[in-house]
Amino acid sequence: MIYHHVHELIGQTPLLELALPTPNQSRILAKLEFLNPGGSVKDRLGQMIIEGGIAAGDILPGQTTIIEPTAGNTGIGLALAAQRYHLPLKLVVPAKFSQEKQTLMRALGAEIINTPSALGMTGATKKAYELAAQVPGSYVPNQFNNPLNPAAYQRTLGPEILAALGAEPITAFVAGAGTGGTFAGTAQALQAAQPDVYTVAVEPAGSILNGGPAHPHRTEGIGVEQRPPFFDQVRVDQVQTISDDAAFREVKRAARELGLLIGSSSGAALAASLAVAEQLPAHATIVTIFPDGSDRYLSEGIYD
Ligand code: PMP
């Protein structure tokens, strides 16, 4: 097969059974989203936001300036998609997020505007709307509240998992939540096909879903400052709160024992999957998502 454009390479990522000792002889199957061309699960969202926005008339090819708050991976996905339709792109990124991701966004043609780390994604979102008010013909997709976010995963990631498993039942679905789009959209697709799939959202310690105190964390890409609106459209059976230490321990183990170079949110997803396996009956099939790879966090000492 010969492909003709990088955009054709988004999605259809492999589902890998992890060769790890697991509680209760369960199987953990991980969707390797770091194999997308922009290196993360958010390539799917960038494509959906731009093409959906064009279809709705919110985005005019070659004209509309796209302005979006992002921790990085959505920015990279948007930059890939914006390039195809010749759309100027301004990304508002809290300064704390990895320099590698910011470098990649710039390489793909985006302009970066940094906001203070202490103001979090809420501060970046506010800044994005302030900029939009100053830039004529601009559009803020706002991934935190855009139905195209879960839709991207309901239409692509969920069906890919179901196709890979065929008739085989899925016992549990475990995925990290930042905007909550990946979790909600995928869980919706899985529950539509198999209503009894047990769904587990994963957050780092410092995120508020389980009611713990909000504080900074090293696990990047997941964690919420408020409950994602997308959670209203899906059944959330459990929230697993994973410490940074537990997430980074699994990141290192995945490299050493599985040859997998995963980011910290993938480490958290793996730690949560192992915890869930302990609660489930024997021979459970657990599906999880590895959203991105470790190469964009090397300067942050992900393997130190
Ligand atoms: N992991 C990483 C590395 C991410 O960049 C993101 C997106 N912020 C997520 C997980 C969570 O995805 P979502 O926003 O769909 O909840």
UniProtKB/TrEMBL annotation:
InterPro entries linked to this entry: Cys_Synth/Cystath_Beta-Synth, P-phosphate_BS, TrpB-like_PALP, TrpB-like_PALP_sf
Record's keyword annotation contains Isomerase: no
Primary enzyme class: transferase
Keywords noted in UniProt: Amino-acid biosynthesis, Cysteine biosynthesis, Pyridoxal phosphate, Transferase
This protein's pathway: Amino-acid biosynthesis; L-cysteine biosynthesis; L-cysteine from L-serine: step 2/2
GO molecular function: cysteine synthase activity
Cofactor(s) needed: pyridoxal 5'-phosphate
Family: Belongs to the cysteine synthase/cystathionine beta-synthase family.
Protein name: cysteine synthase
Organism: Limosilactobacillus ingluviei
Lineage: Bacteria, Bacillati, Bacillota, Bacilli, Lactobacillales
